[in-house]
Amino acid sequence: MMRIALLDDYHRLALSLADWSAVSSRAELVPFHHNLAVPDEAAAALVDFDAIALIRERMPVPRALIERLPRLKFIAVTGPTNRTLDLEACAERGIVASHSSNRGVGGNGTPELTWALILACVRHIAFEDRAMRAGRWQSTLGPVINGKTLGLLGLGKIGKRVAEIGRVFGMKVIAWSPNLTAEAAAAAGVTRVEKAELFAQADVVSIHLVLGPRSRGLVGAAELGLMKKSAFLVNTSRGPIIDEAALITALQARQIAGAGLDVYDIEPLPADHILRTLENVTLSPHLGYCTSDNFKVLYEDTAEALAAWMDGAPIRIMSNA
Question: Catalytic residue at 63?
Answer without folding.
Answer: no
